[in-house]
Amino acid sequence: MVKSFTSVSAAVLFGALLAAPAMAQTTTAPKGAMKITQAECQSLWNRLDASKSGSVAQAAAQSHVTDFKAVDANNDGKLSQAEFQAGCDKGLVQSGASTGTGTGTSGTDSAPKK
After folding, report:
1. β 55-57/78-80 pair status
2. What pTM was computed for the model?
């Protein structure tokens, strides 16, 4: 009985060790990055693939994709719309400016009163 328990335990441990690298390969958004909405993703895709070729080269997508290799599932050096959408879903595609929502300043343009 003790031998069969040990064999079962070893088999479970071995299975868990084999599965760990596969689970560790999942790539998600960098910490603090905000995932864009599906509408933003579609809009960005339409801008990047303005010629409607069905794919976008790495050079065109690079400023929006945080980990191109992770998004380019078939490693062909370009992104299909499905790959791009999957990258959006994982949080690996950013809409552009990473500085926040506003670009202007707020408040008044006069110096504070003393």
Report:
1. antiparallel
2. 0.59
CATH of residue 44: 1.10.238
Strand partners, 80: 55
Residue 1 included in any domain: no
- Return the percent helix, strand and coil in the chain, to nearest 5: 45, 5, 45
Count of structural domains within the chain = 1
pLDDT tens-digit profile, the chain (114 residues): 545 545 545 444 444 444 444 444 455 555 556 789 999 999 999 999 999 999 999 999 999 999 999 999 999 999 999 999 999 999 999 987 443 333 334 444 445 555
Helices (H), 62-112: 68-71, 81-90
